[in-house]
Design goal:
It is built from 16 helices and 11 strands. By secondary structure, it is an alpha/beta fold. The protein has 3 domains: 124 residues, Rossmann fold, CATH 3.40.50.2300; 164 residues, Hypothetical protein af1432 (Orthogonal Bundle); 87 residues, no CATH class. The radius of gyration is 28 Å and the shape is elongated. The chain starts with a strand and ends with a helix.
Length: 401
């Protein structure tokens, strides 16, 4: 609840006084005690500012504001107490990251001034966060769009790998899922340094020459250097840097990092990339998985197990032939999309999204696209009592059956 202040105390008379004194200047809500305060934050928050008494039964203000910080990190927290205890103030600042520590009795004008400063701090924090989020999302979109234009095959591989990475990360309950999936999405950006023939060979499971392999080994560092200059993208850059690092420490970069010291996102990305490479060579999924298992020391066993479970739960698809005008979100390209001259526009394996549909529709109208196009459509489980194991997702397929 933006710009609203929550006051928490165990004395209802004090809470009533807050309402009388401050309601003309601020939007005020109150809660009697820490438990009700946490409920208010969870149900009606986040609040711009939370002011808490220090000495409360069951849950003191230090513990309460510490929990508020966990629930709403951007909320500005203040402590108000009649116990002017230095040690309590130090603990409150360290545990609850308190913005202000005020003592009772606190003159109304001084209290109002502190709340005004708290609101200003909240606006500053949220504005900076919004700017960073816009900067990040904008930077990611630009890099992704550039990759799609410069090399559709590289973009196609990153799209396929991102799906694998997301499924594995969810299975492993990996925190910062956005960070891991972003790293997968941008993992192939550094491949712009490779000649197109080498990329074509790579993404089709063909053997690279020694010179091409040496150049390919540099692509994680190129992408990592590009992303490292973007604010808050350092964790993503590190995952990409270690995407070709094996669990036993071999591979690139050639340093002492190994095992669980390698970022979990990089360990997941390594499995997804190698699995996709095997699939690109027309290796069946079960055979590809067995080959990964046979590569001793290459992969985190926990990631391989998560991959196995993810496959067991994988949604089944049926193959349909559709026109560009019949595309629907959720479809997956089962073949490359080319223009009338045979130029690759989109590599197979990409999931159809609304922006992709619009981009391809515009291109089709202007220059033409080879149609029909084979796509994979998710199968929706049949209703209980049906004789079929699954029913086609007709909503996605349009009039196709």
């Amino acid at each position: 609840m933006t710009e609203t202040i929550l006051c928490v105390d165990d004395d209802p008379n004090i809470l009533d006084a807050y309402q009388r004194q401050l309601r003309k200047q601020f939007r005020i809500e109150t809660a009697l005690g820490g438990e009700r305060g946490l409920a208010a934050v969870a149900e009606r928050g986040p609040f711009a500012v939370v002011v808490s008494d220090l000495r409360m039964p069951d849950m003191d203000g230090i513990r309460f504001l510490g929990k508020v910080r966990d629930l709403a990190p951007d909320t500005v927290r203040m402590m108000l107490t009649g116990n002017a205890d230095v040690q309590a103030a130090i603990e409150a600042v360290n545990v609850g990251h308190i913005f202000r520590f005020l003592t009772k009795p606190c003159p109304p004008e001084f209290f109002a001034g502190a709340l005004t400063a708290g609101l200003a701090q909240y606006r500053l924090v949220t504005a900076e966060k919004e700017l960073l989020e816009q900067t990040l999302s904008g930077s990611i979109k630009v890099l992704s769009d550039v990759l799609a234009l410069v090399n559709p095959e590289a973009f196609g591989r990153s799209a396929r790998v991102t799906r694998y990475v997301g499924e594995i990360a969810v299975q492993m309950n990996v925190p910062d899922l956005w960070c891991v999936k972003t790293a997968a999405m941008l993992s192939q950006v550094g491949c712009i340094i490779l000649p197109e023939p080498a990329l074509t060979k790579l993404y089709r499971g063909q053997t690279l020459t020694a010179e091409e392999s040496q150049l390919f080994n540099q692509h994680p560092f190129v992408a990592s250097d590009l992303l490292g200059s973007i604010p808050r993208m350092e964790p993503v850059a590190k995952i990409i840097k270690y995407q070709e690092k094996r669990f036993d420490g071999s591979g690139v970069p050639r340093d002492a990092c190994q095992g669980e010291a390698i970022p979990i996102g990089a360990r997941i990305l390594k499995v997804a990339l190698d699995f996709d490479a095997l699939e690109a060579a027309d290796t069946p999924k079960d055979v590809a998985f067995e080959r990964l298992k046979q590569r001793a020391g290459w992969y985190d066993p926990a990631v391989l197990q998560a991959l196995k479970i993810a496959f067991a739960r994988e949604i089944k698809h049926e193959t349909l032939s559709v026109k560009v005008s019949e595309f629907a979100p959720g479809m997956i390209l089962a073949q490359d999309v080319e223009n009338q001259s045979g130029l690759l526009l989109l590599a197979k394996g990409q999931e159809v999204t609304q922006p992709l549909m619009m981009r391809l529709q515009n291109f089709s109208n202007a220059f033409g696209v080879q149609e029909p196009i084979a796509v994979l459509v998710p199968l929706i489980p049949a209703q209980e009592g049906s004789n079929r194991d699954a029913a086609p997702a007709k909503a996605l397929a349009g009039s196709q059956t």
